[in-house]
Design a protein that fits this description.
CATH topology of the largest domain: Quinone Oxidoreductase, Chain A, domain 1
Order of helices and strands: EEEHEEEHEEEHHEHEHEHEHEHEHEHE
Helix content: 10-25%
Shape: globular
CATH architecture of the largest domain: Alpha-Beta Complex
Structural class: alpha/beta
Distance between the termini: 20 Å
Radius of gyration: 20 Å
Bound molecules: NADP nicotinamide-adenine-dinucleotide phosphate, zinc ion
């Protein structure tokens, strides 16, 4: 075991504070990553605030991890010391169940080991996330990051990137399709960049008029203020797919009306409150509602390679770790353009 420095919430809703803990010495298949940057996902905030229930403390959040490999076990083949590498929301899974065999480790039917607020495969050892100096992970759950990528802007790809990339692919978005992105935050801005990069026509659906210019700069074809009834009406029945990234309670009916016949509303935003489902627009338009949870490891690698090739990365505000509590307050108010990335050198 070796000592690692990090930041943790010691109890639900507590401010994050310095916290030292131990990580395992690397086994034959493990890599040690010196964490350079870690993005702040709204899921970190939901979990520290215990909005989803079942949280374990102390909690070291962070699942948008990017850094450099500093040690490798003797059977590691995928990475070498000095490589840029990342870790997303998963650090292990059973690897044998049907979901794992289908490269959907996030839906492991045995036990998915999430990067924090979870346990290792033994079911008892707590996992601690990326607001820390180093992480130890089996190479099977480490991702390769192109050495040319800036690590502060690459880190958010490990959650916000894959979470929006996966449904775009699953629902066949591309040239000739119209994609709505609801909520222009961390996930939403990646959804816009990725949908534009694959050739879709992108419509930002936002509650914040102040984000209009950014939406266009990020690659959107149009910005639609969701409170503007006339513009919403002009878009009725036109979208093939909507990525719903909203973190709180909102109206699904208004969104369903924008979809064409058999269009899909894909839910990524994990509102702690249930959302009402109006049945008529579902039936009348033969529409679909789908859920989507991050993406598997192979698809995450595919997304990172796509981003390297197409020069896609997050728009980040890089912060010092001592400012993490202030950043949480701003994230809760939607005041971030568009992802905080913590510089771990400041630990
Ligand atoms: P974020 O940066 O806070 O962005 C959320 C955006 O949604 C806001 O910028 C705002 O955009 C809009 N919004 C927030 N509250 C709203 C409300 N009550 N009604 C309407 N619009 C609202 O958050 P994020 O990091 O992108 O995460 C978004 C959600 O996805 C969170 O719930 C998070 O836990 C979840 N998530 C899910 C997965 C998954 O695998 N499914 C992965 C990561 C995160 P506008 O100002 O443009 O309206
Ligand atoms: Zn996340
Ligand atoms: Zn499994």
């Amino acid at each position: 075991m070796f000592e690692v420095r990090g930041y943790a919430a010691k109890s639900a809703k507590a401010e994050l504070e310095p916290f030292s803990f131990k990580r395992r010495d690397p086994g034959d298949k493990d890599v040690v990553i010196d964490i350079a940057y870690c993005g702040i996902c709204h899921s970190d905030l939901h979990q520290v605030m215990e909005e989803w229930g079942g949280a374990a403390f102390p909690m070291v959040p962070g699942h948008e991890i990017a850094g450099k490999v500093s040690r490798v076990g003797k059977k590691v083949t995928k990475l070498k010391v000095g490589d840029s590498a990342g870790v997303g929301c998963l650090v292990d899974s059973c690897r044998t169940c049907p979901s794992c065999r289908a490269n959907l480790e996030q839906h492991c039917e045995g036990r998915a080991s999430f990067t924090y607020n979870s346990t290792e495969q033994d079911g008892v050892t707590p996992t601690y996330g990326g607001y820390s100096s180093q992480i130890v992970v089996d190479e099977a759950f480490a991702l390769k990051i192109d050495p040319k990528m800036q690590l502060n802007a690459a880190a958010p790809l490990l959650c916000a990137g894959i979470t929006t990339y996966s449904p775009l692919k699953r629902f066949g978005a591309g040239k000739g399709s119209r994609v709505g992105v609801l909520g222009l935050g961390g996930l939403g801005h990646m959804g816009v960049k990725l949908a534009a990069a694959i050739g879709a026509e992108v419509f930002v659906l936002s509650g914040s008029k102040s984000k209009e210019a950014d939406a266009k700069r990020l690659g959107a074809h149009a910005f639609v203020l969701t409170s503007d009834a006339a513009t919403m009406q002009s878009l009725a029945g036109r979208l093939d797919l909507i990525l719903d990234t909203v973190s709180g309670k909102h109206d699904l009916g208004a969104m369903l009306g924008l979809l064409r016949r058999e269009g899909t509303l894909a839910l990524m935003g994990a509102s702690p409150e249930s959302l009402a489902l109006p049945v008529m627009p579902m039936i009348v338009g033969r529409r679909f509602i789908a859920g989507s949870l991050i993406g598997g490891i192979a698809e995450t690698q595919e997304m990172l390679d796509f981003c390297a090739k197409n020069r896609v990365a997050a728009d980040v505000e890089t912060i010092s770790v001592k400012d993490v509590n202030a950043a949480y307050k701003r994230l809760a108010k939607g005041d971030v353009r568009y992802r905080f990335s913590i510089d771990m050198k400041t630990l």
